[in-house]
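agent: user wants the structure for Cytochrome d ubiquinol oxidase subunit II from Glycomyces terrestris. delegating to structure tool.
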Amino acid sequence: MELTTIWFIAIAVLFTGYFILEGFDFGVGMLLPVLGREERERRAMINTIGPVWDGNEVWVITAGGAMFAAFPHWYASLFSGFYLLFFLILLGLIVRGVGFEYRGKGDTERWRRGWDLCLIIGSAVPAFLWGAVVANLVRGVPLDPNHDYTGSVWGLLNGYALLGGLTTLLLFATHGAYFLHLRTTGDLSARARRTGLRLGAATAAPALAFLVWTQAAHGNAASLVLIAVAVLALLAGLALDYRGRGGWAFAATALTIAAASAALFCALWPDVLPSTGDPANGLTAQNAAATDKTLGIMTWAAAVFLPLILLYQGWTYWVFRQRVAVERIPVA
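agent: tool returned. relaying tokens verbatim.
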């Protein structure tokens, strides 16, 4: 297997891992006003992701760094052309991070509500825009012979991209509800279960429409199989949540996200950024890649450090695996 193929797969895996792990973080943040009826419940919800949310963001940082080193032309065209979308994603992540840090610094309800709003917005905006970014990546954008984006920001908000954004928004919210069902106790866990059922049902139609559109316009045999897996996993998650199997329902939505993300990257390959105008202006894994020497050095470095990172993050999840009980949260 060529190094360009290996690194395309590696970047796809990094983004997929980010969507799975950060997806439930976004979901918890978006559901804060829905499930958190009083302060201790909202604090319990935040505590479920408190030890891991910043570690989950490392996946997208690593994906961006790998893209920069392995496919510098892809990185340059994507981040310059999608500048405003990435700026809004980054702004949302910053606002959310500040919300986590400052929420507990004040004692008034008004103070907490203000930072709760930052958590909600800082979760919903990236959850929607990541879907729009990936959809545009698969669909392609207008590029000139220098591989520079020639469209407008409004061109990135086309129907396919908006449907992709709606799909990730609802799917991450469902993922977060299943996570809260798994990681909390009592009435909060029961409400998360019921909310997950409603969100999962609401997710099914746009997700199916988006995936069918993807397969019809850009798909291949591999993406078709993965799309079928994603749809079946989403339906299985609904059935499992209905039966009160929170852990398996969460695993099902994780599989849904993984299969859908893999399908999109399979539909993209061997391109990395197609051109909707002259196909010759598009970027492929071959013409966007760094030199073989650079890719070889990166491969050795990844082989050494990636297992260590995975072990550390796995250990973190193991240490903080216990459910968060509302009654154990001190009264403010």
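agent: one observation worth passing along. The beta strands are 271-273, 283-284.
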